[in-house]
Write a structure and sequence with these properties.
Layout lengths: L15 E3 L7 E3 L10 E2 L2 E2 L4 H16 L7 H9 L14 H5 L12 H4 L3 H22 L13 E5 L2 E5 L6 H22 L2 H4 L4 H6 L11 H14 L18 H9 L7 H18 L2 H35 L3 H17 L15 H12 L9 H12 L6 H5 L1
Antiparallel strand pairs: 1-2, 3-4, 5-6
Protein backbone atom coordinates (compact mmCIF):
# COMPACT_ATOMS: atom_id res chain seq x y z
CA UNK A 1 0.00 0.00 0.00
CA UNK A 2 1.34 3.44 -0.93
CA UNK A 3 0.88 5.91 1.89
CA UNK A 4 0.47 9.48 0.58
CA UNK A 5 2.06 12.07 2.88
CA UNK A 6 1.68 15.81 2.68
CA UNK A 7 5.34 16.60 2.72
CA UNK A 8 6.48 14.08 0.13
CA UNK A 9 4.04 14.52 -2.74
CA UNK A 10 6.00 17.35 -4.31
CA UNK A 11 9.18 15.22 -4.37
CA UNK A 12 7.92 11.79 -5.38
CA UNK A 13 5.30 11.63 -8.09
CA UNK A 14 4.28 9.47 -10.96
CA UNK A 15 2.39 10.20 -14.11
CA UNK A 16 -1.18 8.97 -13.96
CA UNK A 17 -3.69 9.10 -16.76
CA UNK A 18 -7.31 9.24 -15.66
CA UNK A 19 -9.81 8.48 -18.41
CA UNK A 20 -13.20 8.34 -16.74
CA UNK A 21 -15.05 10.31 -19.41
CA UNK A 22 -14.20 11.65 -22.83
CA UNK A 23 -14.79 15.22 -21.69
CA UNK A 24 -12.70 15.00 -18.54
CA UNK A 25 -9.52 13.14 -19.56
CA UNK A 26 -6.52 14.71 -17.84
CA UNK A 27 -2.83 14.21 -17.20
CA UNK A 28 -1.55 14.86 -13.73
CA UNK A 29 1.67 14.49 -11.79
CA UNK A 30 -0.01 13.42 -8.55
CA UNK A 31 0.73 10.11 -6.91
CA UNK A 32 -2.33 8.27 -5.70
CA UNK A 33 -2.39 5.40 -3.23
CA UNK A 34 -3.49 1.95 -4.33
CA UNK A 35 -6.38 2.14 -1.86
CA UNK A 36 -8.33 5.01 -0.30
CA UNK A 37 -5.87 5.36 2.57
CA UNK A 38 -4.23 8.63 3.56
CA UNK A 39 -2.12 9.67 6.53
CA UNK A 40 -0.24 12.64 7.88
CA UNK A 41 2.97 11.92 9.77
CA UNK A 42 1.88 8.34 10.24
CA UNK A 43 -1.61 9.22 11.51
CA UNK A 44 -4.61 8.08 9.46
CA UNK A 45 -6.58 11.09 8.24
CA UNK A 46 -9.74 9.64 6.66
CA UNK A 47 -12.99 10.04 8.64
CA UNK A 48 -16.66 9.76 7.63
CA UNK A 49 -18.43 8.26 10.65
CA UNK A 50 -21.41 10.58 10.26
CA UNK A 51 -22.13 9.24 6.81
CA UNK A 52 -21.91 5.64 7.99
CA UNK A 53 -24.35 6.50 10.78
CA UNK A 54 -26.92 8.02 8.42
CA UNK A 55 -26.73 5.05 6.06
CA UNK A 56 -27.38 2.79 9.07
CA UNK A 57 -30.28 4.98 10.23
CA UNK A 58 -31.81 4.85 6.75
CA UNK A 59 -31.49 1.06 6.75
CA UNK A 60 -33.43 0.82 10.01
CA UNK A 61 -36.10 3.19 8.68
CA UNK A 62 -36.74 1.11 5.58
CA UNK A 63 -36.83 -2.10 7.62
CA UNK A 64 -39.27 -0.47 10.01
CA UNK A 65 -41.62 0.46 7.19
CA UNK A 66 -42.29 -3.25 6.62
CA UNK A 67 -42.75 -4.03 10.31
CA UNK A 68 -46.51 -3.86 10.83
CA UNK A 69 -45.93 -3.36 14.55
CA UNK A 70 -44.26 -0.02 13.86
CA UNK A 71 -46.19 3.07 14.89
CA UNK A 72 -46.27 6.25 12.87
CA UNK A 73 -44.44 8.10 15.63
CA UNK A 74 -41.69 5.46 15.70
CA UNK A 75 -41.12 5.62 11.94
CA UNK A 76 -41.10 9.41 11.95
CA UNK A 77 -38.58 9.34 14.78
CA UNK A 78 -36.37 7.01 12.75
CA UNK A 79 -36.52 9.66 10.03
CA UNK A 80 -36.01 12.77 12.14
CA UNK A 81 -34.27 11.52 15.33
CA UNK A 82 -35.63 14.42 17.31
CA UNK A 83 -35.63 12.51 20.63
CA UNK A 84 -39.37 12.30 21.02
CA UNK A 85 -40.86 11.80 24.46
CA UNK A 86 -42.31 8.45 25.47
CA UNK A 87 -41.59 5.05 24.00
CA UNK A 88 -40.08 6.36 20.78
CA UNK A 89 -37.26 8.33 22.39
CA UNK A 90 -34.81 5.55 21.41
CA UNK A 91 -36.19 4.37 18.08
CA UNK A 92 -33.12 2.61 16.70
CA UNK A 93 -32.03 -0.92 17.49
CA UNK A 94 -28.44 0.31 17.31
CA UNK A 95 -27.79 2.24 20.55
CA UNK A 96 -25.09 4.32 18.86
CA UNK A 97 -27.73 5.79 16.56
CA UNK A 98 -29.94 6.61 19.54
CA UNK A 99 -27.05 8.44 21.16
CA UNK A 100 -26.31 10.37 17.98
CA UNK A 101 -27.50 13.91 17.26
CA UNK A 102 -27.51 13.13 13.54
CA UNK A 103 -30.59 12.32 11.50
CA UNK A 104 -31.71 11.40 8.02
CA UNK A 105 -34.16 14.27 7.64
CA UNK A 106 -31.67 17.01 8.48
CA UNK A 107 -29.55 16.10 5.45
CA UNK A 108 -32.36 15.46 2.96
CA UNK A 109 -32.33 18.11 0.23
CA UNK A 110 -29.81 20.05 2.31
CA UNK A 111 -26.89 20.67 -0.05
CA UNK A 112 -25.08 23.99 -0.22
CA UNK A 113 -25.38 24.37 -3.98
CA UNK A 114 -29.00 23.35 -4.52
CA UNK A 115 -30.82 24.25 -1.33
CA UNK A 116 -28.99 26.85 0.78
CA UNK A 117 -30.95 29.58 -1.00
CA UNK A 118 -33.99 27.44 -1.71
CA UNK A 119 -35.21 26.42 1.71
CA UNK A 120 -38.85 26.30 0.60
CA UNK A 121 -38.14 23.54 -1.90
CA UNK A 122 -35.95 21.75 0.63
CA UNK A 123 -38.75 21.79 3.19
CA UNK A 124 -41.22 20.51 0.60
CA UNK A 125 -38.99 17.55 -0.29
CA UNK A 126 -38.40 16.68 3.35
CA UNK A 127 -42.14 16.81 3.97
CA UNK A 128 -42.97 14.75 0.88
CA UNK A 129 -40.72 11.89 1.94
CA UNK A 130 -42.14 12.15 5.46
CA UNK A 131 -45.68 11.91 4.03
CA UNK A 132 -44.84 8.60 2.36
CA UNK A 133 -43.66 7.26 5.73
CA UNK A 134 -46.92 8.36 7.34
CA UNK A 135 -48.98 6.96 4.47
CA UNK A 136 -47.41 3.54 4.94
CA UNK A 137 -48.95 3.43 8.42
CA UNK A 138 -52.28 5.09 7.64
CA UNK A 139 -53.01 3.54 4.23
CA UNK A 140 -51.08 0.27 3.91
CA UNK A 141 -50.79 -1.11 7.45
CA UNK A 142 -54.59 -1.29 8.03
CA UNK A 143 -54.91 -3.39 4.84
CA UNK A 144 -52.12 -5.82 5.63
CA UNK A 145 -54.35 -8.83 5.00
CA UNK A 146 -56.39 -7.37 2.13
CA UNK A 147 -55.74 -8.22 -1.51
CA UNK A 148 -54.75 -5.09 -3.39
CA UNK A 149 -56.94 -4.06 -6.30
CA UNK A 150 -57.19 -0.90 -8.36
CA UNK A 151 -58.05 1.83 -5.88
CA UNK A 152 -57.56 -0.41 -2.83
CA UNK A 153 -54.35 -0.74 -0.79
CA UNK A 154 -53.15 -4.14 0.37
CA UNK A 155 -50.92 -7.06 -0.46
CA UNK A 156 -50.05 -8.42 -3.88
CA UNK A 157 -48.02 -11.47 -4.85
CA UNK A 158 -44.68 -11.11 -6.62
CA UNK A 159 -43.50 -14.65 -7.25
CA UNK A 160 -42.82 -16.09 -3.81
CA UNK A 161 -42.72 -12.61 -2.25
CA UNK A 162 -45.55 -10.47 -0.96
CA UNK A 163 -45.54 -6.75 -1.70
CA UNK A 164 -47.60 -4.17 0.17
CA UNK A 165 -48.90 -1.34 -1.98
CA UNK A 166 -51.11 1.70 -1.74
CA UNK A 167 -54.29 2.17 -3.76
CA UNK A 168 -52.22 3.05 -6.82
CA UNK A 169 -49.88 0.07 -6.57
CA UNK A 170 -46.97 2.02 -5.08
CA UNK A 171 -44.78 0.47 -2.38
CA UNK A 172 -44.06 3.39 -0.07
CA UNK A 173 -41.03 1.64 1.42
CA UNK A 174 -39.44 1.45 -2.04
CA UNK A 175 -40.36 5.04 -2.81
CA UNK A 176 -38.64 6.22 0.36
CA UNK A 177 -35.58 3.99 -0.02
CA UNK A 178 -34.83 4.93 -3.61
CA UNK A 179 -35.69 8.60 -3.12
CA UNK A 180 -33.19 8.80 -0.26
CA UNK A 181 -30.48 7.63 -2.66
CA UNK A 182 -30.91 10.94 -4.45
CA UNK A 183 -32.22 13.25 -1.76
CA UNK A 184 -29.61 12.19 0.82
CA UNK A 185 -26.63 10.42 -0.75
CA UNK A 186 -26.33 11.96 -4.22
CA UNK A 187 -27.33 15.44 -3.10
CA UNK A 188 -24.79 15.47 -0.29
CA UNK A 189 -22.02 14.05 -2.48
CA UNK A 190 -22.52 15.97 -5.70
CA UNK A 191 -24.05 19.23 -4.53
CA UNK A 192 -22.55 19.66 -1.09
CA UNK A 193 -19.28 18.02 -0.11
CA UNK A 194 -17.74 18.14 -3.60
CA UNK A 195 -18.82 21.75 -4.10
CA UNK A 196 -15.98 24.31 -4.24
CA UNK A 197 -18.16 26.51 -2.04
CA UNK A 198 -17.90 23.84 0.67
CA UNK A 199 -14.37 22.63 0.02
CA UNK A 200 -12.97 26.19 -0.16
CA UNK A 201 -15.20 27.79 2.49
CA UNK A 202 -13.57 30.29 4.84
CA UNK A 203 -9.85 29.68 5.20
CA UNK A 204 -10.02 26.05 4.04
CA UNK A 205 -7.73 26.50 1.07
CA UNK A 206 -5.08 28.46 2.96
CA UNK A 207 -5.25 26.04 5.87
CA UNK A 208 -4.93 23.08 3.53
CA UNK A 209 -1.96 24.64 1.76
CA UNK A 210 -0.24 25.06 5.11
CA UNK A 211 -1.19 21.69 6.58
CA UNK A 212 -3.30 23.30 9.31
CA UNK A 213 -5.59 20.60 10.63
CA UNK A 214 -9.12 20.85 11.98
CA UNK A 215 -8.57 21.35 15.69
CA UNK A 216 -7.19 18.21 17.29
CA UNK A 217 -8.05 16.08 14.27
CA UNK A 218 -5.39 14.72 11.94
CA UNK A 219 -7.14 16.00 8.80
CA UNK A 220 -7.63 19.42 7.28
CA UNK A 221 -11.21 20.64 6.87
CA UNK A 222 -10.95 20.26 3.10
CA UNK A 223 -9.70 16.69 3.38
CA UNK A 224 -12.57 15.87 5.71
CA UNK A 225 -15.22 17.32 3.41
CA UNK A 226 -13.96 15.19 0.54
CA UNK A 227 -13.92 12.12 2.79
CA UNK A 228 -17.52 12.79 3.82
CA UNK A 229 -18.50 12.72 0.14
CA UNK A 230 -16.71 9.37 -0.08
CA UNK A 231 -18.55 8.09 3.00
CA UNK A 232 -22.01 8.48 1.48
CA UNK A 233 -20.99 5.98 -1.21
CA UNK A 234 -18.53 3.67 0.56
CA UNK A 235 -19.14 4.31 4.26
CA UNK A 236 -20.90 0.98 4.88
CA UNK A 237 -18.21 -1.13 3.19
CA UNK A 238 -16.45 -3.83 5.17
CA UNK A 239 -13.14 -2.33 4.08
CA UNK A 240 -13.76 1.25 3.04
CA UNK A 241 -10.16 1.60 1.89
CA UNK A 242 -10.79 -1.10 -0.73
CA UNK A 243 -14.58 -1.03 -1.22
CA UNK A 244 -14.79 -2.44 -4.74
CA UNK A 245 -13.79 -5.85 -3.40
CA UNK A 246 -17.21 -6.14 -1.73
CA UNK A 247 -19.30 -3.67 -3.71
CA UNK A 248 -23.02 -3.68 -2.89
CA UNK A 249 -22.90 -3.85 0.90
CA UNK A 250 -25.59 -1.31 1.72
CA UNK A 251 -29.16 -0.92 0.45
CA UNK A 252 -28.65 2.46 -1.13
CA UNK A 253 -26.24 4.07 -3.58
CA UNK A 254 -23.49 1.49 -3.10
CA UNK A 255 -25.86 -1.36 -3.96
CA UNK A 256 -27.02 0.21 -7.18
CA UNK A 257 -23.56 1.23 -8.26
CA UNK A 258 -22.80 -2.49 -8.03
CA UNK A 259 -25.89 -3.34 -10.11
CA UNK A 260 -24.91 -0.90 -12.85
CA UNK A 261 -21.28 -1.98 -12.76
CA UNK A 262 -22.35 -5.60 -13.25
CA UNK A 263 -24.05 -4.67 -16.52
CA UNK A 264 -21.57 -5.28 -19.37
CA UNK A 265 -22.64 -2.00 -20.99
CA UNK A 266 -21.42 -0.07 -17.95
CA UNK A 267 -18.68 -2.30 -16.59
CA UNK A 268 -15.89 -0.26 -15.03
CA UNK A 269 -18.02 2.65 -13.84
CA UNK A 270 -17.35 1.75 -10.20
CA UNK A 271 -13.60 1.73 -10.82
CA UNK A 272 -13.84 5.12 -12.56
CA UNK A 273 -15.62 6.63 -9.56
CA UNK A 274 -13.23 5.05 -7.06
CA UNK A 275 -10.18 6.29 -8.95
CA UNK A 276 -11.65 9.79 -9.13
CA UNK A 277 -12.24 9.79 -5.39
CA UNK A 278 -8.64 8.68 -4.75
CA UNK A 279 -7.07 11.14 -7.14
CA UNK A 280 -9.23 14.00 -5.90
CA UNK A 281 -8.19 13.30 -2.32
CA UNK A 282 -4.53 13.04 -3.32
CA UNK A 283 -4.89 16.32 -5.20
CA UNK A 284 -6.13 17.98 -2.02
CA UNK A 285 -3.07 16.70 -0.19
CA UNK A 286 -0.90 18.05 -3.02
CA UNK A 287 -2.75 21.39 -3.11
CA UNK A 288 -3.80 20.93 -6.75
CA UNK A 289 -7.34 22.23 -6.75
CA UNK A 290 -7.85 22.11 -10.50
CA UNK A 291 -7.30 18.35 -10.45
CA UNK A 292 -9.52 18.08 -7.37
CA UNK A 293 -12.36 19.82 -9.16
CA UNK A 294 -11.91 17.74 -12.30
CA UNK A 295 -12.31 14.59 -10.22
CA UNK A 296 -15.44 16.02 -8.59
CA UNK A 297 -16.88 16.52 -12.06
CA UNK A 298 -16.19 12.90 -12.94
CA UNK A 299 -17.91 11.69 -9.76
CA UNK A 300 -20.94 13.90 -10.43
CA UNK A 301 -21.24 12.68 -14.00
CA UNK A 302 -20.92 9.00 -13.15
CA UNK A 303 -23.20 8.98 -10.09
CA UNK A 304 -25.85 10.93 -11.99
CA UNK A 305 -25.62 8.32 -14.72
CA UNK A 306 -26.17 5.54 -12.16
CA UNK A 307 -29.43 7.18 -11.04
CA UNK A 308 -30.67 7.62 -14.60
CA UNK A 309 -29.72 4.09 -15.67
CA UNK A 310 -31.63 2.53 -12.80
CA UNK A 311 -34.66 4.77 -13.40
CA UNK A 312 -34.84 3.56 -17.00
CA UNK A 313 -34.09 -0.03 -15.98
CA UNK A 314 -37.04 -0.21 -13.59
CA UNK A 315 -39.43 1.50 -15.98
CA UNK A 316 -38.55 -1.07 -18.63
CA UNK A 317 -38.71 -4.01 -16.23
CA UNK A 318 -42.10 -2.79 -15.06
CA UNK A 319 -43.31 -2.60 -18.66
CA UNK A 320 -42.10 -6.16 -19.30
CA UNK A 321 -43.85 -7.51 -16.19
CA UNK A 322 -47.09 -5.74 -17.14
CA UNK A 323 -46.99 -7.39 -20.56
CA UNK A 324 -46.95 -10.74 -18.74
CA UNK A 325 -49.80 -9.68 -16.41
CA UNK A 326 -47.37 -9.96 -13.48
CA UNK A 327 -48.80 -7.05 -11.55
CA UNK A 328 -46.93 -7.74 -8.32
CA UNK A 329 -43.58 -7.82 -10.13
CA UNK A 330 -44.51 -4.80 -12.23
CA UNK A 331 -45.57 -2.72 -9.24
CA UNK A 332 -42.39 -3.60 -7.38
CA UNK A 333 -40.25 -2.53 -10.33
CA UNK A 334 -42.25 0.63 -10.91
CA UNK A 335 -42.04 1.51 -7.19
CA UNK A 336 -38.26 1.31 -7.39
CA UNK A 337 -38.38 3.29 -10.62
CA UNK A 338 -40.56 5.89 -8.89
CA UNK A 339 -37.82 6.47 -6.30
CA UNK A 340 -35.02 6.67 -8.85
CA UNK A 341 -37.07 9.11 -10.94
CA UNK A 342 -37.59 11.21 -7.81
CA UNK A 343 -33.81 11.10 -7.31
CA UNK A 344 -33.15 12.59 -10.76
CA UNK A 345 -33.68 16.12 -9.41
CA UNK A 346 -30.56 15.71 -7.24
CA UNK A 347 -28.27 14.69 -10.09
CA UNK A 348 -25.67 17.18 -11.28
CA UNK A 349 -24.18 17.95 -14.67
CA UNK A 350 -20.41 17.54 -14.51
CA UNK A 351 -19.34 21.12 -15.28
CA UNK A 352 -22.55 22.97 -14.46
CA UNK A 353 -24.51 24.30 -11.52
CA UNK A 354 -27.61 22.59 -12.88
CA UNK A 355 -29.27 19.25 -12.34
CA UNK A 356 -30.04 17.04 -15.31
CA UNK A 357 -33.71 17.34 -14.35
CA UNK A 358 -35.53 20.11 -12.50
CA UNK A 359 -37.97 19.43 -9.70
CA UNK A 360 -40.78 20.51 -12.02
CA UNK A 361 -39.75 17.91 -14.59
CA UNK A 362 -39.52 15.21 -11.93
CA UNK A 363 -42.88 16.21 -10.48
CA UNK A 364 -44.31 15.85 -13.98
CA UNK A 365 -42.97 12.30 -14.27
CA UNK A 366 -44.38 11.41 -10.85
CA UNK A 367 -47.78 12.91 -11.66
CA UNK A 368 -47.95 10.86 -14.86
CA UNK A 369 -47.11 7.63 -13.01
CA UNK A 370 -49.64 8.22 -10.24
CA UNK A 371 -52.64 9.71 -12.08
CA UNK A 372 -55.91 7.80 -11.97
CA UNK A 373 -55.32 4.39 -10.42
CA UNK A 374 -51.56 4.80 -10.72
CA UNK A 375 -49.64 1.71 -11.74
CA UNK A 376 -52.87 -0.19 -12.37
CA UNK A 377 -53.58 2.18 -15.27
CA UNK A 378 -50.12 3.03 -16.55
CA UNK A 379 -49.64 2.65 -20.30
CA UNK A 380 -46.53 0.86 -21.63
CA UNK A 381 -46.13 3.63 -24.21
CA UNK A 382 -45.90 6.13 -21.38
CA UNK A 383 -43.12 4.09 -19.77
CA UNK A 384 -41.23 4.02 -23.07
CA UNK A 385 -41.59 7.74 -23.60
CA UNK A 386 -40.42 8.48 -20.08
CA UNK A 387 -37.45 6.15 -20.51
CA UNK A 388 -36.42 7.85 -23.74
CA UNK A 389 -36.70 11.29 -22.16
CA UNK A 390 -34.40 10.26 -19.32
CA UNK A 391 -31.84 8.45 -21.47
CA UNK A 392 -31.67 11.34 -23.95
CA UNK A 393 -29.92 13.48 -21.33
CA UNK A 394 -27.11 10.94 -21.06
CA UNK A 395 -24.82 8.91 -23.30
CA UNK A 396 -26.60 5.56 -22.88
CA UNK A 397 -29.62 4.11 -24.67
CA UNK A 398 -32.83 2.71 -23.25
CA UNK A 399 -31.84 -0.72 -24.60
CA UNK A 400 -28.53 -0.59 -22.73
CA UNK A 401 -30.14 0.41 -19.42
CA UNK A 402 -33.01 -2.06 -19.74
CA UNK A 403 -30.88 -5.21 -19.49
Amino acid sequence: MIRTKFGFLALFCTILMVSCSDELDINTNIETPTTYSFDRDGVYTVSFSGQTTRIGMATELIDGMLDFNSSESLLLELYSNETATGGDADPFTNPDYNASTKSIKSKVAASQDFFSSNTTESAAIKAEIQSWITNQVTEVFPNENELATAGVAGQIADGTSVRYVNAGGLEYNQAVAKSLIGALMVDQICNNYLSPDVLDAGTNRTDNDNGITDGSNAYTVMEHKWDEAYGYLFGFSTDATNPLATLGEDEFLNKYLARVNNDSDFEGIAQDIYEAYKLGRAAIVAGDYDVRDQQAQIIREKLSEVIAIRAVYYLQQGKLALSNSDFGGAFHDLSEGFGFIYSLQFTRKADSADSYFSKAEVDGFIATLTEGNGFWDVDPTTLDEMSETIASKFSFTVAQAAQ
